[in-house]
UniProtKB/TrEMBL annotation:
It comes from Caballeronia concitans. PANTHER family: RSBT ANTAGONIST PROTEIN RSBS, RSBT ANTAGONIST PROTEIN RSBS-RELATED. It comes from the Bacteria. The gene is rsbS. It holds the Pfam family STAS. This is RsbT antagonist protein RsbS. InterPro entries: Bact_StressResp_Reg, STAS_dom, STAS_dom_sf. Residues 1-113 form the STAS domain.
């Protein structure tokens, strides 16, 4: 089965979603990510969704649930690169992604996770 790579950068994990998400892949990512948070002692997770043109309610909930699980495991989550169409869809679906911080790009997302100021 296809998997989404999770890169480790110090105490942070970086996930770049570059394929169309389907339900099974989303659940596998959630399992892989929570396992890696524990294994690597990660304090932050950056999820880059800039390649996604469409997010349905299941994927939106999965992102929110993954952030909640990360929080329980003492890691912050930042979602970056959200397309305007995805933001509109999430709002129309009533998904607020509570607990998920967002940033325009990877650089600003990393600054949020590390506490440094973005350029």
């Amino acid at each position: 089965m296809e998997r989404i790579p999770i890169l480790r950068m110090g105490k942070l994990l970086l996930v770049t979603i570059q394929v169309d998400m389907h339900d099974r892949l989303a659940l596998a990512l959630q399992d892989d990510l929570t396992g890696r948070i524990v294994k690597d002692g990660a304090t932050g997770v950056l999820i880059d969704i800039s390649s996604l043109d469409v997010v349905d309610s299941f994927i939106g909930r999965m992102i929110g649930n993954t952030a909640a699980m990360a929080r329980v495991l003492d890691a912050q989550t930042v979602v970056v690169g959200m397309q305007p169409s995805v933001a509109i869809t999430l709002v129309e679906l009533g998904l607020t992604l509570s607990g998920v911080r967002t940033a325009l790009n990877v650089e600003k997302g990393m600054a949020l996770l590390t506490g440094s100021s973005a350029a």
